[in-house]
Amino acid sequence: MTAFNIVRFRVKPGHQEQFVALHRQHPNFKGFRGGALVKTGDNTFCIIGEWGKFQNIVDARPQMIGMLDSLREHLEDLGGGLGLTDPVSGEAVVRLPATKPARKKARGKAKKAKRKSRR
């Protein structure tokens, strides 16, 4: 079953470019389907990762901690006893489909014909 991990960070002022650049490197984690680094405020970010199954997250934790170690100098403590990161993960329980775009109403030929007949 698909799983996700989400990690919240606060980046030190002046360190955003380095922090983002380090995330541009493609991780080589087994079962990692992709993800996104999301800027949520002036100095705050979340990373969201999609995985084939929860066990892939468990297996990748040592590598993810190694990646975090390369980021530590750019991070500020989140406060409240959290430390540098606020991680959560789990299996998806509902898949939300993308919203389909509304269909555009086609201008029918009948309207064009009516205009011509009025003349």
Question: What's the gist of this structure?
Answer:
This protein is of the alpha+beta class and 119 residues long. It has helices at residues 16-23, 54-71, 109-118, and strands at residues 3-10, 32-39, 44-51, 85-91. The termini are far apart.
CATH topology: Alpha-Beta Plaits
The ordered H/E elements are EHEEHEH
Instruction: Assign an overall shape.
Output: extended
The counted number of beta strands is 4
Helix share, percent: 25-40%
Number of helices: 3
Residue ranges: pLDDT <50 for 5 or more in a row?
none
What's the architecture in CATH terms? Answer: 2-Layer Sandwich
Distance between termini? 65 Å
Sheet-strand content, in percent, reads 25-35%
Oligomer: single chain
Strand arrangement within the widest β-sheet reads 2-3-1-4
What would you call the structural class?
A: alpha+beta
Largest sheet: 4 strands, antiparallel
The averaged pLDDT comes out at 89
**Count of separate structural domains:** 1
Radius of gyration: 23 Å
What is the CATH level 1 assignment?
Alpha Beta
Structure report:
The protein has 119 residues and is an alpha+beta fold. The protein has a single domain, classed as Alpha-Beta Plaits (2-Layer Sandwich), CATH 3.30.70. The protein is 30% helix and 26% strand. The protein contains 3 helices and 4 strands; from the N terminus they run βαββαβα. Strands 2-3-1-4 form a 4-stranded antiparallel β-sheet. Strand 2 and strand 3 form a beta hairpin. The longest helix has 18 residues. It is extended and about 65 Å long.
